[in-house]
Design brief:
The chain is of the alpha/beta class and 978 residues long. The protein has a domain at 745-902. It is 42% helix and 14% strand. It has 31 helices and 24 strands. Strands 3, 4, 5, 6, 7, 10, 11, 12, 15 and 16 form a 10-stranded mixed sheet that branches. Strands 13-14-22 form a 3-stranded antiparallel sheet. The protein has a 3-stranded antiparallel sheet with strand order 17-18-19. It is an enzyme of class 1 (oxidoreductase). Its EC number is 1.17.4.1. Belongs to the ribonucleoside diphosphate reductase class-2 family. Residues 873-886 have a biased composition (Acidic residues).
Length: 978
């Protein structure tokens, strides 16, 4: 299968002078570190459930523009050396130097650079790009490069297994070593004979599903002891394997078992003590389908299942019935996914060496058996200029720089098995990709599920891969083509022509994607010209990976090809604490769409309150699609995800790690259609997930059943005398009535031309205790309703209902009359109720509480425009600011100032602008309650919708999707391999 060492040596001898490296970001004579402001931080990480400190390191050094989350995850995941010792890395400089200097040395030692000056430029450019979060290598590079450990740089591995016990047991061993190193592996089990075939001894074979049990148990054991990352694996079976129906239904049956055990009272949560009794939970399963099978599904004909040893058809089944079973199993438990075999191999550059039969666990890397791929991803938002144009020229240069570094890494890399090392060195498969596509589309005013969004994504992906293969051909002229190129040259050049033809078929819609596409067209022309002359250094160049942990390292809003997860995010702050943040991507998009500052402020405030844009004040309905997200009130449709994948797939060497999300109400037939459309649109792989299809988190009805069982058991114990009923002391609210004589103030107002009067009565301490509303030209019915409403609110206030609760409930209510008001503090109102409770908030709530609700006076808004802060602080220190507050409270006479004097309900003020800093940006920051620990938790609270995701086993935070895997916002842990 692999080429000889002699072939590699001959390729090197034909090589020419090294590369000339062009400067992109750096300046001659200035080291990239010298242009950065560095600061020291304390990194303390806790498990919020147990309160246990799981990591602590003080005085670590990072650039001041890196977010707390990025520095925390890099410190905990990537710094090497025992904590508390001199050997422990103390800052980002040490980490980057450890990696970059290793790459630069290997490049010089292996003849990649024309001169020592080129080697230095390469080192400086790579350093700059990493410091400024322009791109990142995959996690194994940061784990291993430059350490005493094996220099493993690859995240993805594909193994192979034959129909022999020696091979099967070797599979268990190789997979275990890969898991131990924190990576994942996939393989195809279709060579193993089915349970419907005979052994040479005369007995019946066990079949591949039975051997999956042993591999699953092995992965589970290693997973439970993993330190950096959990075991991740993919198991593939061909659609014509006689055991395909058993394979398809395997995990669905286990899901039924989980439900039954859960309902019997066992702990079946992810990470629960009883979940280990369930099998097949450590792997993603995929069915490998052929064009023949998919056509049989379309036509409603039967399909033959073939014996593994002879290839003869031993059973014929109805193709549609089998597809329905695949879709039904996916509907029940999200497995199996689907891989399109003929499409995959039609884009295979090395068919003379062997077919592609499997993928890595996340399905983006597809190549030869016993091979590996190292990944890197570019941060797309870093190439968006201040004028909202995409810097395609710099993007191409960075892609060429990164692909050069990735190829160099194979020169010094170590591999878990000799066969994987040999194949990787002979074929040099790489996986360059990108992150932050969803954020880029939103920032530029493109809907994710729109023709314009898909055209832009296709152009960028085409340029990325075209630039990478262009550099690969240039590298072939310098250090020789990959050793397996000679026997696969015709096929490789054919696939390059397929990419070029797909690029020619892209329809551009505006200046942005047209300019990118023009560069991509030139790049593909160069690929074919240079490749015909020099060959290629790499069999594969690009994939779209999940970018989980490295996405946090680059402060990305979105991972891989994914849309934005939600419009409102959870964010940690320097010095502790956390905030609810509306991304700066949103105001940037609104400005791009032509909205003025006042409208942007109102829309952002609305998003902060509701988590979506539906009925946002002043936002045009045709612009809603720009802000559609992966979850929430306007979740992107399943086919929206499929169409985006189809737009990018023709420009990738590998595939795309992505899950197509469907609502809980989706049917089996809808999943069938998604799988069929994925085949027709030319995808290589597809996975689906229907909300709440897995028991990974207890569902609300499950909690209810548990509570009912507890109540029944308690009743039984009382009846038998084993327990007794204890009377409960019930604390009931008491009414605090206003004194007979109380101060009050009356405010006249108009909303949309309707006149009204608001009278508010206060307690002696200044707190609001009653209100009355009167409207001019009102009928007797409306007058009665408003009197009743006023009494209800007043009684609630006197029984202790906080005013901020009423403000939260009644602001943003939308009905007529609505529009302009005569109040300078509340310029626009969506209804009379909206105005009244905003006015009450301004009069009776302290600044801290109002700011978390996004309610500011005209003076405060003006101050924010001038100084960047709503607070009346100026350049004073926080201590002076506190003294000013105390002095104001002591001398105040107005009700709202007296309310502040009575005591604050919330413990801390909003962050200073300097605290809310991130590569992603932030807007409308406000405090979050203590039970919120992630963006998933935040969206659940804002929209009342369950986020169907597992809990991180390291820090207890609810994870969120990243491709076909999950990633933890708290500590960066992932459930995948990249």
């Amino acid at each position: 299968m692999t080429e000889t060492v002699g072939a590699r040596s001959a390729a090197r001898k034909s090589a020419k002078k090294g590369l000339t490296i062009e400067r992109i970001f750096t300046t001659p004579g200035v080291h990239p570190y010298d242009d950065v402001t560095w600061e020291k931080r304390d990194v303390v990480q806790t498990n919020w459930k147990t309160g246990e400190t799981i990591f602590e390191q003080h005085g670590v050094e990072f650039p001041d523009f890196w977010s707390v989350n990025a520095s925390t995850i890099v410190t905990t995941k990537y710094f090497r050396g025992a904590v508390g010792t001199d050997k422990r890395e103390q800052g980002l400089k040490q980490l980057i130097d450890r990696v970059v200097l290793t790459y630069a040395k290997a490049g010089k030692d292996n003849g990649y650079f024309a001169t020592p000056e080129d080697a230095e430029i390469f080192e400086h450019e790579l350093t700059y790009a990493l410091v400024h979060q322009v791109f990142s290598f995959n996690s194994p590079v940061w784990f291993n490069v430059g350490t005493a450990s094996p220099q493993q740089v690859s995240a993805c591995f594909i193994l192979s297994v034959d129909d022999s016990m020696d091979s099967i047991l070797n599979w268990y061993k190789e997979e275990g070593f890969i898991f131990k190193g924190g990576s994942g592996a996939g393989l195809n089990l279709s060579r193993i004979r089915s349970s419907k075939e005979l052994l040479s001894s005369g007995g019946t074979a066990s079949g591949p599903v039975s051997f999956m049990r042993g591999a699953d148990a092995s992965a589970g054991t290693i997973k439970s002891g993993g330190a950096t990352r959990r075991a991740a694996k993919m198991v593939v079976l061909d659609i014509d394997h006689p055991d395909i129906e058993e394979f398809v239904e395997t995990k669905a049956r286990e899901e039924d078992k989980i439900r039954a055990l859960r309902d019997a009272g066992f702990d079946m949560d992810l990470g629960g003590r009883d979940i280990v009794s369930v099998q097949y939970q450590n792997a993603n399963n995929s069915v490998r389908v052929t064009d023949e099978f998919m056509k049989a599904v379309e036509e409603g004909t039967d399909f033959g299942l073939r014996a593994r040893m002879t290839g003869e058809v031993i059973e014929r089944i109805d193709a549609r019935s089998l597809m329905k079973k695949v879709a039904k199993a996916a509907w029940e438990c999200a497995d199996p996914g689907i891989q399109y075999d003929d499409t995959i191999n039609a884009w295979h550059t090395n068919p003379e060496t062997g077919r592609i039969t499997a993928s890595n666990p996340c399905s983006e890397y597809m190549s030869l058996d016993n091979s590996s791929c190292n990944l890197a991803s570019l941060n797309l938002l870093k190439f968006l200029r201040d004028d909202d144009t995409f810097d395609a020229e710099t993007f191409q240069k960075v892609a060429e720089l990164v692909i050069t570094a990735m190829d160099i890494s194979i020169c010094f890399a170590d591999f878990p098995t000799e066969s994987i090392g040999e194949t990787t060195r002979d074929y040099r498969q790489l996986g360059i990709g990108y992150a932050n596509l969803g954020a880029l589309l939103m920032a530029t005013g493109h809907g994710y599920d729109s023709e314009g969004g898909r055209a832009l994504a296709a152009a960028i992906t085409s340029l990325l891969t075209g630039a990478s293969y262009k550099r690969s051909a240039e590298l072939a002229a310098v250090v020789g083509p990959y050793a397996g190129y000679a026997r696969n040259a015709d096929a490789h050049k054919r696939v390059m022509a397929q990419h070029r033809d797909a690029n020619a078929a892209v329809t551009t819609l505006d200046q942005m994607d047209s300019s990118i596409h023009a560069l991509a067209t030139q790049a593909w022309d160069d690929v074919l010209t240079l490749g015909d002359k020099n060959g290629f250094r790499n069999a594969q160049a690009s994939v779209l990976a999940p970018t989980g942990t490295i996405g946090f390292m680059m402060d990305c809003d979105t991972t891989g090809i994914e849309p934005d997860f939600s419009l409102v995010k959870f964010k940690k702050l320097v010095g502790g604490g956390s905030m609810q943040i509306v991304n700066l991507t949103i105001p940037r998009a609104l400005k791009k769409l032509g909205y003025q500052d006042e409208s942007i402020e109102a829309i952002v405030e609305y998003i902060a309150e509701h988590g979506h844009v539906i009925d946002a004040p002043g936002l045009k309905t045709e612009h809603y699609e720009v802000f559609d997200c992966a979850m929430g009130a306007r979740a992107i449709s399943p086919m929206g995800h499929v169409r985006m994948m189809a737009a990018c797939q023709p420009f990738l060497s590998g595939a795309i790690s992505k899950t197509v999300n469907l609502p809980e109400s989706a049917t089996v037939e809808e999943i069938e259609d998604v799988y069929l459309q994925g085949w027709k649109l030319g995808l290589k792989a597809l996975a689906v997930y229907r909300d709440n299809c897995k028991v990974g988190q207890p569902l609300s009805d499950a909690k209810k059943k548990v509570e009912e069982r507890v109540e029944e058991k308690a009743a039984e114990l009382v009846e038998s005398g084993e327990a007794k009923v204890v009377e409960k002391v019930v604390y009931r609210p008491t009414r605090r009535r206003l004194p007979k004589r109380r101060s009050s103030q009356t405010t006249s107002f108009t909303v949309g031309g309707a006149e009204g009067y608001l009278t508010a009565g206060a307690y002696p301490d200044g707190g609001l205790g009653e209100l009355f509303l009167k409207f001019g030209k009102q009928g007797s019915t409306l007058a009665g309703v408003m009197d009743a409403f006023s009494i209800a609110i007043s009684v609630g206030l006197q029984y202790g209902v906080p005013l901020e609760t009423y403000v939260d409930k009644f602001t943003n209510q939308r009905f007529e009359p609505a529009g302009l008001t005569d109040d300078p503090d509340v310029r626009m109102s969506q209804s009379i109720m909206d105005y009244v409770f905003r006015r009450l908030a301004l009069d009776y709530l302290d600044f801290d509480t109002r700011s978390m609700m996004g309610i500011y006076s005209a003076e405060e808004r003006a101050r924010q425009l001038e100084t960047g802060s709503y607070e009346p602080v100026g350049d004073d220190s926080e201590e002076e600011y506190d003294e000013e507050i105390q002095q104001d409270v002591a001398t105040s006479k107005t009700p709202q100032e007296k309310a502040r004097e009575a005591g604050e309900r919330f413990g801390s003020s909003p962050p200073r602008p300097a605290e809310v800093k991130s590569g992603a940006g932030a807007a409308d920051a406000r405090e979050v309650s203590q039970e919120i620990h992630s963006s998933a938790d935040l969206m659940e609270k804002l929209q009342g919708m369950a986020s169907d995701a597992p809990i991180c086993m390291t820090c207890g935070t609810k994870m969120r999707p990243a491709g076909s895997c999950y990633v933890c916002e708290g500590c960066g842990s992932t459930s995948g391999c990249s």
